[in-house]
Amino acid sequence: MSLEEGTNQDNQKNSVKKSTFNGLIVGIIILVGVAAFFAGSYTSNSNQISNEDLDDAIAKLELKLLQNQLPTKQPSAPVKISADNDPIIGNPDAPITIVEFSDFQCPFCARFHTQTLPLIIEEYIEQGKVKLVFRDFPIQSIHPNALPASVAAECANEQNKFREMHDMLFEKQNEWNKLETVDALSLFNQYATEIKLDEEQFDSCLSSGKYIPEIKKDLDDGRDYGVSGTPGFFIGNDEIGYVELKGAQPFDSFKKIIDAQLDA
Predict the structure, then answer these.
(1) b/e map of 36-55 (b: 16 or more CB within 10 Å)?
(2) Can you give the pLDDT at residue 264?
(3) What is the pTM of this model?
(4) CA-to-CA distance for 191 and 176, rounded, in angstroms?
(5) What is the largest CA-CA distance in the chain?
(6) Which of 124, 77, 132, 70 is nearest to 102 (CA)?
């Protein structure tokens, strides 16, 4: 095969994949609809982020906008927080559960998962004391790639590789968070290859939009529990109840609640 022929075949494959990604976007619009999917209106920010300080400033502004515009009423003492059937990091039989509502494109969520979660994993999750349940809360109107990222993670979970895709999406958030959605999806496909997913199954899962209802259920449950921004956490279990923790808090904030719940 000549170099030109090989290049033509690669271009054809890329064209097919791009068609698949376009199909996913159309599927998302048809199955959900942005207006019905997210209550209220939000202010978007499309400026290019050039450094970490600017990124943090924009993240804080986004969080403030969300808190101002989403319902702020919080459950005073939630009787039960459902883990649904969402992906779990840790031992499913761990006595304490952290139920997280998160957005893959949210800078604060990325900070939690790259800075704080590793400490929780080391001290509690690897010891079998705590498990983390990841529930999707993509704020699509200010994070247009958040919903496709959630779909990609769900599709990876289908092949028992949620943790690998979860880590990849957060660690490489700056690679895809400002891209056009089709280009972001192309990167997600590359990530799937890197973590050795079955590419045909992954592509089929993405294009079908099969996990859109599951993601919408997470959003609806989060709103019912009073989640007004991401990340949002509920720590405990059905027997002792859950304590709510808002935002990307430092490890010590989690430690205080986890230790108290373990002793309850």
Answers:
(1) ebbeeebeeeeeebeeeeeb
(2) 84
(3) 0.72
(4) 11
(5) 69
(6) 132
